[in-house]
Amino acid sequence: MTATGVLLAQTVFILNLGGAIESVGASGQFSAFYNGVNAKDTMLQTNTELATSSGAVMFTNNACQLESGIGMNQRAFSNVLILSLDYLNFADNHCWVDGPELSAFFDAMLLAGSAQVNCNRFQESPALAVLASGVTVGALNVTSSNISTYCLFVEGIETANANNLSIIPARYCTGTPRR
User: Fold this and answer.
1) Which of 117, 115, 160, 152 is CA-nearest to residue 134?
2) Which DSSP string corresponds to 167-179?
3) Do residues 49 and 18 make contact, with C-beta atoms less than 8 angstroms apart?
4) CA distance 115 to 117
5) What value does the mean pLDDT take over residues 101-126?
């Protein structure tokens, strides 16, 4: 899949459109609880006519390696791109980008309704092969105990951004990737 000649993901691309069980229908959204919607009117109850599918993605214990040598001209938005409307568990992976400047914008771009990104190694060449090691986005987002070469950005409504280490000093990793 390309966007103006640049691949969206070079190594892994996962798009899961299955929804979380608690948000099956419009009346099952969290906002309905605060608007006085009666529980029997919501789709949170068991309904055998509903065809629900989990959108959970478990991506663990993988090695995702992008080798973009000189002259290969491989460019991508991200080495690993995972999008889920439900839950994403991204753990114990080794993501690696070795190539010339801007082989990819990000080593990993992870977006989900709720995300848990733990104990990964994001490793990139010092030739500025990426702008950032990763971006994790989830309404509820726990990103902890990761080791990265470049900055790791954690975004969401409720976030737990703990014990992440980067070779680039933390003072250079403040702010958001939008800057």
Assistant:
1) 152
2) SS-GGGG-S-TT-
3) no
4) 6
5) 95
Full 3-state SS string of 82-96: EEEEEEEEEECCEEE
Percent of the chain, pLDDT > 70? 74
Q: Kindly state the tokens that stand for 50.
A: 């509903």
Separation of alpha carbons 159 and 109, rounded Å: 16
- 86-103 pLDDT, tens per residue? 999 999 999 999 988 888
pLDDT in tens, 6-26: 789 989 999 998 888 877 554
Domain parsing of the chain, residue ranges: 2-17+55-173, 21-53
Highest mean pLDDT among 27-36, 52-61, 112-121: 112-121
Three-state secondary-structure class, residue 162: strand
Q: Tokens at residue 84, please?
A: 């889920």
Q: Which residues pair with 59 in a beta bridge?
A: 90
